[in-house]
Specification:
- By secondary structure, the protein is mainly α.
- It contains 13 helices and no strands.
- Among the domains are: 2-124, Helical scaffold and wing domains of SecA (Orthogonal Bundle); 309-397, no CATH class; 403-442, no CATH class.
- Helix content is 81%, strand content 0%.
């Protein structure tokens, strides 16, 4: 008895210690969440001043929700310390709820404040960002004459289709830079007037305009180098294409190979001669496409030569054999519907599904013959397996009482499991199935 009471006392002490720890955790969590709410409320005031009320609406909603639920948490704490006695379970439940509410409050505030952190940092650095925008606008404006000179130079060397991708970049970049300058002025005026929301919008649009203008001018600077690289690559691709045409003449001359060779030869003829205005980008893409098509056709022709295509007559014979096997299996299973198990019906369904994907009565393309032959043979094998399983189910369903019962003569079957039934059933079944098959194969 002393051991029992000692064990129970230890358990009570452990429960009391756990409850005390939970109570301390609830107190710490409540104090921390309340302090976090106060700090976030101050941050929200600053964010509204910097970003405007519209941008900070999600944070304001989160602060209101946290304030409401922390009120519930403080009420639960008060209930734990009022004059009304409570059970340990009630106190424990309230403390657990307090911890849960405080954790939720801190997670929600962390999520909403982190979403505004970048915008707040940008708003704090607004004067610095405005100064950077103006400096970059001035730098990019100095690049405009050079960009226009590059466009004029490449326009006299390359086809208008090639130059069209950059022909308007200088003018568009100039317009964007003017817009960025105007946006920075608007941002500065609105910020000085205390309209932080519109000021931040103008600042963002000015920043984006400068970024786009820089991208357009970089594209002009890169065009000459890219065009020269494309011309150099085009010369190599032309040489490779001519070598590929020579090699393709040694491959089996299938219709696909001859067509691909003709298309590549035509593409080589459309390459601009030296000294003329060319579009090296389009010509390079055209040659690569036709060259790749020829490689595919040659590889397929050689693979086909190494593995001859089955004659269409063989494929048709395999399909006809599959149809005969399916017809026999369907007839046997349909004639003994109540006796056939799931295995036979499943094999028959698989065979019929495979038959639906086989070639119709029209010509079979050479690329499809090998797969059609394999599918037809698989279909015939599944149908034969379905017939074997069906015959097993039929034999297993016949009774052992001779001619009586569902499997006997009186029940519509071909014989029982007795010696006489086996003999008569086997003979009659063989005759019926034999006549059925003869009728199908005639």
């Amino acid at each position: 008895m002393a051991g029992f009471w000692g064990k129970r006392k230890r358990e009570q002490q452990e429960v009391a210690e756990a409850d005390a720890n939970l109570a301390r955790e609830a107190d710490i969590a409540l104090v921390g969440a309340d302090e976090r709410l106060r700090v976030t409320n101050d941050e929200m005031a600053f964010a509204e001043a910097e970003l405007g009320e519209e941008a900070t609406a999600p944070l304001r909603e989160a602060v209101d929700a946290v304030r409401h639920h922390l009120g519930e948490a403080f009420h639960l704490k008060q209930l734990n310390h009022d004059e009304i006695p409570d059970t340990p379970d009630e106190v424990r439940t309230r403390n657990a709820r307090i911890v849960q509410l405080c954790e939720w409050a801190e997670e929600l505030l962390d999520d909403r404040t982190s979403a505004l952190a970048a915008a707040i940092e940008r708003a704090r650095r607004a004067p610095e960002i405005l100064s950077g925008i103006r400096a970059e606008v001035e730098t990019l404006q100095q690049r405009l004459p050079t960009a226009r000179a590059v466009i004029d130079r490449v326009s006299g060397r390359y086809h208008p289709d090639a130059v069209g991708r950059i022909s308007g970049n200088a003018d568009e970049a100039g317009g964007l830079l003017e817009f960025a300058q105007h946006g920075s002025d608007v941002a500065e005026r609105r910020r000085a007037a205390g309209e932080r929301g519109p000021a931040n919008i103008a600042l963002e649009t000015a920043t984006e305009a400068v970024r786009r203008a820089r991208t357009l001018l970089d594209a002009v600077d890169d065009f000459e180098v890219e065009a020269l690289r494309a011309q150099s690559t085009l010369a190599d691709v032309v040489a490779d294409s001519r070598d590929d045409l020579v090699t393709a003449r040694t491959a089996p001359q299938t219709p696909a190979v001859t067509t691909a060779m003709a298309q590549l030869q035509q593409a080589l003829g459309r390459v601009s001669p030296a000294g003329s205005k060319s579009d090296p980008f389009a010509e390079l893409s055209m040659l690569r496409e036709k060259n790749a098509a020829l490689d595919v056709a040659v590889d397929k022709a050689r693979e086909r030569a190494a593995r001859p295509v089955p004659p269409e007559s063989h494929v048709r014979h395999a399909i006809d054999d599959a149809d005969r096997q399916l017809a026999v299996a369907r007839s046997v299973i349909a004639g003994h519907r109540g006796w056939i198990g799931a295995d036979a019906r499943t094999r028959l369904a698989e065979a019929e599904s495979l038959r639906l994907g086989l070639a119709p009565s029209g010509p079979i393309d050479e690329d499809d013959r090998e797969k059609a032959l394999a599918d037809a043979r698989r279909c015939a094998a599944l149908a034969g397996e379905a017939l074997q399983l069906a015959q097993r189910d039929i034999d297993g369903s016949r009774p052992n009482d001779g001619w009586g019962g569902p499997g006997g003569y009186g029940g519509g079957g071909w014989g029982g499991r007795s010696s006489g039934g086996n003999m008569v059933g086997g003979i009659l079944g063989g005759l019926v199935i034999g006549s059925m098959l003869d009728g199908m194969f005639d």
